[in-house]
Amino acid sequence: MSSRNARASGGGILDISTEFLHGIDILSLLTPGEIERMKALFTIRRIGEGEVLFREGDHGNELFIVRSGEVATSIRLPDGGAREIALFREGDFFGEMSIFENAPRSATCVAAAPSELLGLHEKEFYRMIEECPDIATKVMYRMLNITTQRLRDTGEFLSDMVHWGEAARRRAVTDELTGAYNRRFLDDALDREFERAKGSGSSLTMAMVDLDCFRQINERHGEEAGDRCIIEVVRVINRLLRENDIFARYGGDEFALLLPATGPDDAGELAGRIRKDVEGLRILPPDGSGPRLTLSIGLASYPGHAGDPASLREAADRALYRAKEEGRNRVALAESSQSVGGTRT
Q1: Residue 234: enclosing H or E segment and its boundaries?
Q2: Cα–Cα distances in Å, from 222 out to 214, 280, 322?
């Protein structure tokens, strides 16, 4: 192993006692001489309170040990929120799975207090394995034992957390009648998905959906029949959505869809299937004198139709208005005179 000095992020020589390193679990089997040789591999990272060290999904190639301070780790929840699952303090290590498996970061780590970290880069880790296999064996033995227990404890915690928290979380972000997400969730999801699309250079399409002549349906058949129509429409849409699509009841008989990594052509095809399947529902009495159950859809896509979340929503809303003006029971694309499918009612 190289005898070069490890350096801090500010350029200073690493100054840390052998006693401190020996007290770290993953180094506890090493002799003082072996720990001295390990010193050359570490660098120092200093982060302020609230500073993000890395985010869930980021590429990872470095293991960290907390020299001082505290680092909180959290995971994303299905409702778009976050849940803290661990707090690492002096002597704790984290980030090892990205080195072992060359996998993306499985959680987000943020400094809960001003912190100083020791970093062990993937390249140095594997150089240690090649040049000092005896040291590497001791370190990995302790690391794997601790990681195995940590994963077991975290898995049990998450299972309990999901069990007691799911009902409360769903009430906060879902519509009571349909089970679809509510507008509050959609507003947060739109900002999040837009930033994700912008960062990855991918498309994002938003669809605004509105039931046609819904007031007349309620007046003629009653609110109970109107609720049945809404519930059946939600079932149709849910059946056609893909895993990463987001569906929300925007209010009353209006809904919204967020379609990540989807351009206007694919979104138009999906919207057309939704329109056709809803048109085929037979919920209302077939007396021939009342309005049929149909819907209109307006589509807008980033980057072609909007450059920010608010503009994307407005463009989809304008497209929906145009679909209504053109006769309802159709799909309209933002800033286009073309509409897809449907017959005028």
Answers
A1: helix 223-240
A2: 11, 21, 28
> What are 142-176's pLDDT values in tens digits?
877 776 666 555 554 445 444 444 454 555 678 88
Q: What does the alpha-carbon distance between residue 60 and residue 274 come to, in Å, rounded to a whole number?
A: 40
Rounded CA separation 217/290 (Å): 8
Phi, psi of 299 (to 5 degrees): -120, 140
pLDDT digits (tens, 9 = 90+) for 286-337: 665 667 889 999 999 999 999 999 999 999 999 999 999 999 999 999 975 3
Identify the CA nearest to 319 among candidates 341, 342, 335.
335
The DSSP output letter for 338 is -
Sheet order of strands, 82-88 included: 52-54, 108-111, 71-76, 82-88
Quick count: other Cβ atoms within 10 Å of Cβ 289?
A: 7
The pair of three-digit structure tokens given for residue 138, joined into one six-digit string:
């001791």
> Which of 194-202's residues contact partners 24+ apart within 8 Å by CB, and which partners?
194/302, 194/308, 194/309, 194/312, 196/260, 197/260, 197/261, 197/302, 198/302, 202/260, 202/261
